[in-house]
Amino acid sequence: MRLFAAVLSVLMLCCQVAQAQVRSYDQMIAGGELKVAVYKDFAPYSFEDGGTPRGVDVELAQALAKALGVRLTLIWAPAGEKLDDDLRDYIWRGSQLHNQQLADLMMRAPYDHDYAQKRNDQGELENGHVVMFGPYQNEQWQVAYDRRRLDSVGSVAVFEQHPIGVEVDSVPSFYLTSVFNGMLAGNTRHYPGVPQAFAAMKAGEVDAVMGMRGEIDWQVHEAGDPQLALAENAYPNMGKQRWEIGMAVHESNRQLAYAVEEALESLIRDGTLQSIYSHYGLRYEVPEMYQ
């Protein structure tokens, strides 16, 4: 019992320390710094090029910090196994692995009511310490293909005869190996990520690649090959195929969320965000909230 009490005390102390690191909006402004968590090695959203931070989320974070009149500090976040883990580690509790450093703001959180209201076995909100807000991007699934080996993609059924590359353990992987009673599974090739799958397509190992539209657009843009095309097919029996991406803050920091959302709307309406996306070869659609 004494050992249990000691362990519990240490755990409570750790939680208190992490909570103390959640800065209020006034503290952030007074400190002149906005700490923003972005995913590490996640082109075209957030990555380093020769030591220089680049990406859509990086440039958006820079623009938001400028609008708030503060300097930007990036926190590079390796993706966890689940988004819940990332929100916990960077927004509300911290992590020993990351020196318990918390961000004021995290990019690339889902703007989804069902996800925000998700509850655990005890009926508690799984992300009750987090506010997810500010949709700034529409995302969806996309196929790119090589015209030299595939004339067109009218339907995913063409991948019964043509190999397609996907990221391992991804939604496209599960979809293509199960749709149509698994008839596409034999031609579905798995790679560590979309960049590797795309490299395999350029090497002739697969005829197409499926992934998130932003990643696919970026790879096509970087390749600069007119024989690489974007398909316009549908995905029968896939479920949710389009979603909105936003940001997250600690639930006690709604004032920051309001300020960021106001700045974001201005960046959308004056064309800044459109320009950022075009810079990386990405298509941009204004989220429904701002239409």
Describe the structure.
With 291 residues, the chain is α/β, with parallel strands linked by helices. The chain has 2 domains: 22-138 and 243-290, Periplasmic binding protein-like II (D-Maltodextrin-Binding Protein, domain 2), CATH 3.40.190; 140-230, Periplasmic binding protein-like II (D-Maltodextrin-Binding Protein, domain 2). 37% of the residues lie in helices and 23% in strands. The chain contains 10 helices and 11 strands. Strands 1, 4, 5, 6, 7, 8, 9, 10 and 11 form a 9-stranded mixed β-sheet that branches. A two-stranded antiparallel ribbon has the order 2-3. A hairpin with a 2-residue loop joins β2 and β3. α3 packs across α9. Mean pLDDT is 90; it is low at 1-20.
Question: What is this entry, summarized?
Answer:
The protein is of the alpha/beta class and 291 residues long. Helices cover 37% and strands 23% of the residues. It folds into two domains: 22-138 and 243-290, D-Maltodextrin-Binding Protein, domain 2 (3-Layer(aba) Sandwich); 140-230, Periplasmic binding protein-like II (D-Maltodextrin-Binding Protein, domain 2), CATH 3.40.190.10.
